[in-house]
């Protein structure tokens, strides 16, 4: 379990945030976040305010990464690159999450290392990580300002013969009778994806393609491809029945069921390449894996 309890005894009353900063060397922002997430206790009672005066038995719940051998595939002084397997969270959902990519990030790179972006649980491929707080915001801005080009390798149903630009607005789905989290909607946010075919497989009637999102909407590639009749093979949410999606989310589908109902035992979506300029250098980082 990556979250552990650290115990202390405070002899002289002191403000909670000051204690964290002065004695445990937390930054003001990190100290406030710890308190806001209810991971700071005084005599087994939650500390709710940074200004709260504390004394006596103190418990802090902190994240301590454990490794399963997933190392960075590239790193320099500013950032590192991980190859995330499919069906792995990049970040723990809560303190009961047994393992996520963040475990490996903290284990290999230290407590200042931070995710620069995220990819879905079911998606495999490249994840960029800043190695120190002083580089974190600058690296995150590459994604926020869309100055980084992401390329995904995808396998879809049916044949795609030529390049396509899908320009359809997307909106979060409010329909409780659907498992699709995002839908195409005329009042949604602008979403654009460029599609390039790589190879068509006649036997399985599937096409391997490259997808380059020009915007960063939730499930953008998955929704866009399904909207033009080319559902991603293995997608458990888009282009399948409510019943199958429900069973998938309840973890009731075996690998054989996934192959039967979804076309594959995993989502065939892989973050293949990142291209960007940083610190006067052009980077073209490619995944060592392929679908």
Question: What are the key terms here?
Answer:
7 helices; alpha+beta; 4-stranded antiparallel sheet; Structural Genomics Hypothetical 15.5 Kd Protein In mrcA-pckA Intergenic Region, Chain A; 291 residues; Pseudouridine synthase; 22% helix; 3 domains; 16 strands; 10-stranded mixed sheet; Alpha-Beta Plaits
Give a quick precis of the structure.
The protein has helices at 16-24, 28-36, 101-109, 133-144, 220-227, 242-249, 255-262, and strands at 3-15, 40-42, 45-46, 53-63, 74-75, 79-84, 114-115, 124-130, 149-157, 164-167, 170-172, 182-184, 192-201, 206-213, 269-278, 281-286. The chain has 291 residues and is an alpha+beta fold.
Largest sheet: 10 strands, mixed
Under CATH, the topology of the largest domain can be stated as Pseudouridine synthase
Quickly give the structural class. Answer: alpha+beta
Give the helix tally: 7
Can you identify the CATH class of the largest domain?
Alpha Beta
Q: Give me the count of strands.
A: 16
Question: Radius of gyration from the CA trace?
Answer: 22 Å
Query: Distance N terminus to C terminus?
Result: 31 Å
Which shape, going by the Cα principal axes?
globular
Describe the structure.
This protein is α+β, with helices and mostly antiparallel strands. It has three domains: 3-63, Structural Genomics Hypothetical 15.5 Kd Protein In mrcA-pckA Intergenic Region, Chain A (Roll), CATH 3.10.290; 74-145, Alpha-Beta Plaits (2-Layer Sandwich), CATH 3.30.70.580; 151-270, Pseudouridine synthase. Helices cover 22% and strands 34% of the residues. The strands form three sheets. Strands 5, 6, 7, 8, 9, 10, 13, 14, 15 and 16 form a ten-stranded mixed sheet that branches. Strands 1-4-2-3 form a four-stranded antiparallel sheet. It has a two-stranded antiparallel sheet with strand order 11-12. The longest helix is centred in the middle third of the chain and has 12 residues, at 133-144. The chain is globular. The chain starts with a strand and ends in a 5-residue tail after the last strand. The mean pLDDT is 94.
């Amino acid at each position: 379990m990556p979250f552990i309890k650290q115990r202390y005894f405070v002899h002289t009353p002191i403000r909670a945030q000051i204690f964290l900063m002065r004695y445990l060397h937390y930054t003001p922002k990190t100290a406030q976040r710890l308190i806001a997430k209810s991971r700071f206790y005084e005599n087994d009672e939650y500390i709710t305010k940074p200004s709260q005066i504390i004394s006596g038995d103190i418990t802090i719940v902190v994240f301590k990464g454990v490794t399963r051998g997933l190392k960075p595939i590239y790193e320099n002084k500013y950032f590192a690159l991980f190859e995330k397997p499919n069906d792995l969270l990049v970040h723990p959902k809560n303190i009961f999450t047994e393992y996520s990519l963040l475990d490996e990030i903290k284990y290999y790179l230290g407590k200042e290392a931070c995710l620069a972006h995220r990819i879905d649980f079911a998606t495999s491929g490249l994840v960029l990580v800043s190695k120190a707080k002083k580089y974190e915001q600058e690296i995150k801005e590459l994604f926020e300002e869309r100055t980084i080009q992401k390329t995904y390798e995808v396998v879809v149903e049916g044949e795609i013969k030529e390049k396509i630009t899908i320009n359809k607005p997307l909106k979060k789905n409010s329909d409780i009778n659907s498992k699709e989290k995002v839908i195409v909607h005329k009042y949604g946010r602008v979403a654009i994806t460029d599609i390039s075919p790589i190879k068509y497989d006649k036997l399985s009637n599937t096409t391997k393609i490259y997808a380059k999102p020009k915007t960063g909407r939730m499930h953008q590639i998955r929704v866009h491809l399904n909207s033009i009749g080319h559902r991603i093979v293995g997608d458990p949410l888009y282009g399948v029945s409510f019943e199958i999606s429900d069973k998938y989310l309840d973890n009731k589908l075996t690998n054989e069921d996934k192959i039967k109902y979804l076309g594959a035992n995993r989502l065939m979506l892989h973050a293949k390449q990142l291209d960007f300029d940083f610190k006067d250098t052009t980077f073209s980082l490619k995944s060592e894996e392929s679908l």
